[in-house]
Amino acid sequence: MSIENLSCNKSFGGWHKQYSHYSNTLNCAMRFAIYLPPQALSGAKVPALYWLSGLTCSDENFMQKAGAQRIAAELGMAIIAPDTSPRGDEVADNDGYDLGKGAGFYVNATQAPWNRHYQMYDYVLNELPALVESMFPVSDQRSIAGHSMGGHGALVLALRNPQRYRSVSAFSPISNPVNCPWGKKALSAYLGIDSAGWADYDASLLMRQASQCVPARVDQGEADDFLSAQLKPDTLEAAATFSGYPLELNRHEGYDHSYYFIASFIEQHLRFHARHLGQY
Amino acid sequence: MSIENLSCNKSFGGWHKQYSHYSNTLNCAMRFAIYLPPQALSGAKVPALYWLSGLTCSDENFMQKAGAQRIAAELGMAIIAPDTSPRGDEVADNDGYDLGKGAGFYVNATQAPWNRHYQMYDYVLNELPALVESMFPVSDQRSIAGHSMGGHGALVLALRNPQRYRSVSAFSPISNPVNCPWGKKALSAYLGIDSAGWADYDASLLMRQASQCVPARVDQGEADDFLSAQLKPDTLEAAATFSGYPLELNRHEGYDHSYYFIASFIEQHLRFHARHLGQY
């Protein structure tokens, strides 16, 4: 498993680093970023928060804009940010910003031409943590979080794999993709027009029938332009109520869909995960 | 004086906003960003930190990447980030990233074709604060800071106008532009090849002969690729020693020229300014 270091920046006493590696799951070269807190520099293993970004993003948006390193350095937590889709000239794409490159939706595509590379669910669940845990002083104590499409991905991965994650959080997640335009477009392309298989990738449907639970926190801005048409936090909240799922849903007056919102509350998310990762 | 609001994001209980206005100093439309902390929302005037960015930047880099709003919200301080040069199709430019648009160097150009628009020194010193203080609940208690080319600008503006600023700070400033490639290229273009007039825009030369002082703090990463060829903090330090100038110069092992460095120490800079602005 070859891996190439692309960049390295000292940050709050730890290191932000970008790497490229060939992904056997995605059949292409992939970039990811990792923040290693000062506690990891001695070689001691630290727990990990996996961050999944939203539409059009790469590994860089969160690392540059969220202001998370300050708190991760205090708490002794690594943060790993994968890209949002397979990349490269050979990878199928679409003119829209909401399908294809930058819009992998964290699913395993079953439909051509997407199924050759778009296997982001398996990549985030298995290949990336295996690589990270083999190369860095990062333990298998994992939490997962994300924004918008990445909030959807984080919730789906945690809901389907409660044994793999200690906690999950999301900012402004696409909570019920089978019922919104972004989700319908992506899921019909990647999984086919028969919507029966879509339920495996819908946080609200999964939460409704969840038995084994991962502590979950969601924050949603009330001035978010995508709130009612695309995100549907009410549906997620109703699902949690129905199944008794431990979901903490916080609504914030005046906040929008941007990283200014994420930066304002990322500290609370990291402290939430640290409690469940045993770091505090 | 017309001004147009371009964007508005709630951030740490305050507001990040971008505006466009026609600048009579620069003879073109200009964009700037302002962060108004929660304390300003009642209409009470808050003190202001003006932030000057580096080469290739706009008003957005600092606001998105530095993580300053969290601390400004706590301290009750507005932050104003102008662009780094005049902008627009009619504005003279150059193929290099280090001259022309995005590289105004905070000087008043005297040479054609630059002198028609490149008057960033006057814009930052006079027009922008007058506009800000007339439109927002922002007082005339001002501090100034910046990064790289913007660190040069902040130091020069404060050293030449000690009555206008309570404190000045810089990350990785171009400290002695008359003696480095970036500075020689820009100053010879904007001010002419006779270097006699360049001294008015050289922080080290100004600090050597300073009488009235503004408390100054500089932070410099020791792994900065531009350290010895372009930035020359030793020259600035020697000037401060020579004139007894109150300069606090901090060197940081392993940090580079990026916003990861700025984010790591911006809290210390804002608290430094707050002390001198009477906010703590």
TrEMBL record, chains A, B:
A Pfam family this chain is assigned to: Esterase
Reaction equation(s) it catalyzes: S-formylglutathione + H2O = formate + glutathione + H(+)
Matching InterPro entries: AB_hydrolase_fold, Esterase-like, S-formylglutathione_hydrol
Gene Ontology CC entries for this record: cytosol
Keywords annotated in UniProt: Hydrolase, Serine esterase
GO molecular function term, any single one: carboxylic ester hydrolase activity
Enzyme Commission designation: 3.1.2.12
GO biological process, one term: formaldehyde catabolic process
Active site (catalytic residues): S148 (charge relay system), D224 (charge relay system), H257 (charge relay system)
Function per UniProt: Serine hydrolase involved in the detoxification of formaldehyde.
Family: Belongs to the esterase D family.
Identification of the protein by name: S-formylglutathione hydrolase
